Here is the input.
Amino acid sequence: MALAKSFAVSLMGLEGAQIEVEVDISNSLPGFVLVGLPDASLSEAAARVRAACVNSGFELPAKKITVNLSPASVPKFGSSFDLAIALGILAATKKIKQETLSELVCIGELGLDGSLRRVNGVLPLVLQAKKLGFTKVAVPISASSEANLVEGMTVVAANSLGSLVALLNGASQEISQVSVPEPTSQESDLDLSDVAGQPDAIFAMLVAAAGRHNISMVGSPGAGKTMLAERLPTILPELNQEQAIEVAAIHSLVGSGQVFSGTAISRSPQFQAPHHSASMASVIGGGLGLPRPGAISLAHHGVLFLDEITEFQNNVLQSLREPLESRKITISRSAGQAIYPANFQLVVAANPCACGNYGSAKLPCSCSVVSRQKYLNRLKGPLFDRIDLRLQIQPVGTLLNKLMQDNNSAMTSAQARLLTTQARLASRERLSKTRFESNAEVSASYLRGKLKLSPSSTKSLVRALDKGLISMRGYDRCLRVAWTIADIEGATSPDESMVARAMTLRGADA
Here is the structure.
C-alpha cells in the first residue's frame, strides 16, 4: 500500500478552501476511483490524468488508485485539480518526493499528451493559497504571469507534466521569486472632448465621477447619451494596486483577458454595458452549479451602463437595488453561496417615449399621452429613486456643434480626471474618520449632523421639500451632490448656489 498527499484550492466566489488530495494505491482490482464531491468535469479527471501520466513517460501500476478530495463536504468544480491529482499519484509511486509537495499548491488542467493548460481563476486561486499559508504554487507556464501578480508567492511554471516533475525533482535552484509587476494604465481612444455642445451634461458627468453618484439620462436617439456614458470611465481616477488586483481576480474567474496587459494589470476602471435582453444571471451573477460573477461584479470599481433601461426585464432591474446599497452581491445556489464585490457606478439611459421623438423640435412624436406616460412610468420606482443625478439630454443643433468645434475649448478627459482626483481627495480627507469612502455613500444622519449646512444655504431645498417637489430621500441626495460640487470647486462647504445647482442636477421627484 502506498499513500501520498498534494494540495489544491477550491473556490466559491472569491473565497476558497484548502483541499487535500489524498492518493492511495492498493493491491486490489485495477481501477481509478475519485471521491470527495467532484462535479462532472472533475469526475472526468481520471481519464485525463491516466493518459497524461502514461504519455509523459510515467507508467502507472496495474493496481487500484483511490483519490480522495478532502474535506469531502466542500463542493469541487472544474479541471483545476488535474495537476494536484497527477502529482499526488506520482508521489505515491515514488516518482516525486513527498516533501516537495508539502508546501506546494497545484493549479492546472492536463491534456492527454501531458501538456499543462491554464484554467480560469488562477489569480484568485493563488491569492487564496497565500491566505491559507502556502508560499509556493505550481501552474502552467501560460498562467505564470497571472500567478506572479501575487506578491510573496514562489511560482513554479512548466508547459508539461514531465518538465514540471523534472523541475521539482532536480532543478529546485531554478525556482526563483518573481517580483510582482506594477499595474499599468491603458490609454483609451475615447475622450471627453469628443462630446460637443453638451456643457451641462459634461459637468454632470464630472460631478458623477467626483462623488461616485449614479446618473440617468433621458433624451432622443442621437442626443449623445451613449457617448457620454462611454467616456465616464476615462475621467475616473485610476485604481490603486489593491483595487486593480481585486478587479483582475474577478475577471480571471470568467476568463476575461481585458484587464491583463502582458505581465501587468490595468489600472483603468472597467466599463460594462450588457444588452437589454441580458438575463439576470448574466447581469447579477449566478448560473447552474458554481455561481459565476455577473456584469455588476465585472464593473467593480468601474461603470455599469444600462442603455434602453426601459427594455430590461423588471426583475433584473429590481435585483440591482441591494448591490447598489451594500456594494456586494450574495448568490446562493444548491452547491453553495458565493459573495462577489459589486462596487460600481450605475449609468442608465432611455428615450423620452416609445418613438423617441417627444420633446424634439424637429421630429413629431407619434405617441399618445397615455402611452408616453406608461413608457415613462417604467423609470419610476425604488431603483430610479437611488439615482442621484437625472439629466434631460437635448440634441445638439448643427450650428451649435460647429461653433463648439471651431472654439475647440472642450474639456479633455485628462483635465476632468485631474479635477475628479482632487475632489475625491478633498472628500476623502473630510470623511477620513468615517466608514464612508465617497459623498454618494454618506448617510442621511451624518449629512444632517456633522455636515449640517446653514439655513441660508438650504432655504431653496427646504422650499422644494415643503411644496412636495422632492421627497426626503431626494433632499438628502441633493445635499450629497452639493458637497461634491463644493469639492470640485475647492470650497469648504456648499453655498446656496451650489445647493441650487444640485437641485437642478437631481431634478424633481414628481
Q: What stands out?
A: Residues 244 and 364 are 48 Å apart (CA to CA).
